[in-house]
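ASSEMBLY PREDICTION REQUEST
Request ID: AP-0331
Submitted by: J.K., bench scientist
Number of chains: two
Total residues: 1164
Priority: normal
Notes: Please return the full assembly, not individual chains.
Input sequences:
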Amino acid sequence: MDRAVSGIAPARTARWGGVGHGAGPDPVAAGATAAQAAIDGRENPGLLLVFAPCEADLPAILGAVADVAPGVPLAGCAADGQFTAGLMRRDAIVVLALGGDGLEVSLAPVDAHDPRDAGARAAACVGDVAHLPHRLLLLFADEAVHGHADLVRGAYSVVGAGVPIAGGVSGPDGAVFHGRSVLRGAVVGVAIGSEGPIGIGYRHGLRPIGEPMLVTRVADGRILALDERPAADVLEERLGTLPWIGAHPKVHLGLQRRTGEWRVRVAAGDDRTVEDRSLQCPLPDGALVWVMDGDVEAATRAAEDACTDALDGLGGAMPRALLAFDCIARRALLESEAALDEVAVSYLDVGPVPLAGIHTAGEFARTHGITGLHHCTIVVVAVA
Amino acid sequence: MSQMPDSHPGAERNGPARWAAQQLTEFLATVSRAADEAEAAQLGVERVAEIVDAECAALVRHGAVFASIGWPRFEVPERELVAAAHGHGDGTVVVPGAGPRPAVVLRLEGEDGAYLVVARASSPMAGEEESLLHGMARGLALTTRLLRTISAERTLRSQADRQAAENVRLLDTLRMRQRVLEAMARIQRAISRREPLQAVLEIIVAAAGELLGDDAPALLLVDPEEPEVLRLAAVRGFSDTVLETIRRRPITEGASGRSVVEDRLVVVEDYAHHADALPGLVVEGVQAAMAAPVHEDGKVIGTLVLSSMRAGRVFSRAEQDMLLSFAEHASLALTDARRVDTMLHQALHDALTGLPNRALFTDRLGHALTQGRRRGTSCGVIFLDLDRFKTVNDSLGHAAGDELLVSVARRIDESLRSADTAARLGGDEFAVLLEDLGGVGEAELVAGRIAEALREPVVVRGREIAVAASIGIAVGRVAASELLRQADVAMYRAKAEGKGRHVVFEDSMQDEVVERLELEGELLRAIERDEIEVHYQPVIALDGQTLAGFEALVRWRHRVRGLMPPMQFIGLAEENGSIVALGRHVLRVACRQAAEWLEEFPQAIMTVNLSGRQLEDPNIVADVAAALADSGLPARALVLEITETVLMHDTEATIARMQALKALGVRLAVDDFGTGYSSLRYLRRFPVDILKMAKPFVDGLDADEEGRALARAIVELASSLKLSCIAEGIELPAQALLLHELGCALGQGFHFARPMTAAALDELIGDGGDGRTFALPSAA
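STATUS: Completed
Returned structure:
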């Protein structure tokens, strides 16, 4: 495990957060611009979170960011859209910097061949910040990693209930970052220990429609049958036609929790769907699921509420930075990408607090219970 | 850290009722996929925690933690968990990040020294969750044992001579496990499809039979009315003769009774010679039986029994476990199914009368029409609205009103043929569906029977109440909603023609409905179009027959229909809410006019009607204050008239508004006094100043002595309560004279003057000032 711990500054500086963005044909210049704006001359940077477009020259960008603040722990991922307050661009590079005294960071990049084991190993870095009163484990996973639920479960098995988990899955054909390295098929754990509180909020805003269906056959993370019939056929009958989001048909299914909370899972079609009418979706056998639906208003409110929940979690402490993981699938709900941009920018625009966000293909948030994988959800982390 | 989960009202609807059974199915499906004991234990604790939304769970076995989740990997509080498992310590375990929390400890039955310990940061586990946890613990124990058997058999497989037999056993074990899951999934599906409770019970019993391949499975439930009796809820495989003997049995008899009384699995082999054997079943050929208790919210409510006719039948340990586990699941499913059944019934029936509600009625009507079309018959709908029900409700209270509705529902139901369906559509509206009608005549016969049944007074709280209903009938093959609407239209016609009659729908009535709708639309625009006029009727001092004031009365000058009196549109305005704007308009116009007349008649009052809807409007006090301020009319000159029925809704808000109006300085009058009920009660309760004697009492003056006594009673009541009295509808000089003699100070009516425009009234009173004597031509 390769770890980096922030240096110890001789005089105490207040904790701070900063965000910067850059774009343009020159990835080096754009990366440097974003990093410089994020740090903005402040002392003692402790962590750089970098978000860049999947198709960009990622090594060049990471090199440029790292050169601005040599030795500062760097993590992040390539996404399908990056945003900050007032800006959302597919081609933007967004850098969020956290620093100051009373903030410590440890990173753990892990090959994610076995997701449960990878989650556990990525979480081990939390031990490095265990002496601080408030801790958070951020997980950045590559889209190519399978078994996201196992990943979070593995991390939870190591950190336990005392440490919240947040994070997200990179965009399609994405990658995760550790220092100057672009990693694929990997997960990067970022342990943040702080003297200030950390809040997490997550919402999807979807509601169940129609009668439930029983999952009657599953295998290898796929639903083969609902109500004893081919899964895609059943859903097609329900919905008329399977909605397409991006390159594949995707349906939001809801599982009901004890508390009345609805957990969303995306059932996605792929090449195999054409052959056997099965859908990719990590659901337990015997589960009762509902088709979930939403609208622009509900999706917008979800973003607003997630942000409020995260800020409430600070217990009145001043937020230094906000980090958002917003599901790509929410675009379909928001009807157009333009609407999503507007939402991301307007509802997470909390004024002077620096905000960085990305569009993810799976979101992590565990604050209660033991489950931490979400779909079609917006997760907001507030750092005080 | 704070976060609020996404929840939705739908959760309420679909949720708690079927949550537990669904979770158990999921749980068993998950743990049964484990390849070995260790994996089952780990999957088990994780799924348990996940399902009950707990942060921490552990499996403690033989004094050590065998599997856990929720504690940091190297900080599992083993000693604390073992102590909690064995009931030592303070019953709590530490949930990281949340501190000590109550630990729920469940023994894994049949597994020596094995316990499941669960703790969560949020609220402690509730009853239903504990039942579910018991079910999961049992499922985990069963799975663990099966896996151990498989593993042991695998070890033995190396012995070549036994391999074939072992493989068969191994396969059997695996198949058995699969069968439990499939059986449970079937029940789950039945519940999720909201099949009737009895169907779910049948499926539970069928599944139990198929599970172990035995001949006669049965579900017996404790009779809620007679707790010492077990009743057969569902059964398979017994002859009719035996069924008669076991349909209802004392709880103290047989293996089934014992399993309920002792709340445990009872296994009887060599049935014929067992003390618990029932003679009937011995004759039937039962060789062995086993019964597992079924619970609801932790309480035994029945038993699932398997009887086998196979000679020498012995139940293996795994089979016993399976029945127990299945009974546990059946318990949760049964609880679910009962709740769904109850909810479904509640959703489709009127809670008060137990009759089908509008949704169910419309559905049945639709089916009946479809069938009727096939058979070439028609359907009929009788629409029934109780006359003056509101008055009963208002005067005797809602509880009495409810009692009356229940009686009416029963009488309607008793007047019907067996195939007919009665429903309560809401309020005092009922409907009856008549299937396979030959013609309208048959429907009229039924309507006549209902009217006859209602004719007998109903006794409610010791008072006899005469009930009558207006009945509309529609017969045809049109769509359900249309037929219901037609009957509704006919009912309105019946009401309009005089209460207590029935009317058959005719197409021409349709036009009236359309007309009414048009009128409604026009009324909404009438104020803007300046079509609302205020007319005034003089109020006369009966002593000298001089002018004492005016009553403002609204008129609608319709562009096509001409001048319309209030009874043609006030009801409509009340219904569509335009009464508030209409009332405000009249108030302002009347106040302006009164201010003008006040110069000439300084002591005159202006009375303006206030409807119930206006009094419910929170802005009414501000509206009155504004009308006074804008017109410059002193508050003492304004009298607001409220009907008795409004006062009978004596809510705190009504009283508060009336007091606020009084605080402005205006006076309050009770309009149409004497036509409602319990007058004294609210006269004491409300701050009224004036009683307006209703016209029937004035009409009754010259009828007989009794009529005069009634009028006198009202005048004396007003006098004793120090209220003024205005007699309405005086049409004859003798009436004016008698009222004056009775002590009634004020009066109004055609005898003095009809309502007229302000200009006409100006002309009538000329310039005689307030000394103007109303010796009108008719009185001369």
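REVIEWER COMMENTS: Chain A touches chain B through 53 residues (CB under 8 Å).
SIGN-OFF: pending second reviewer
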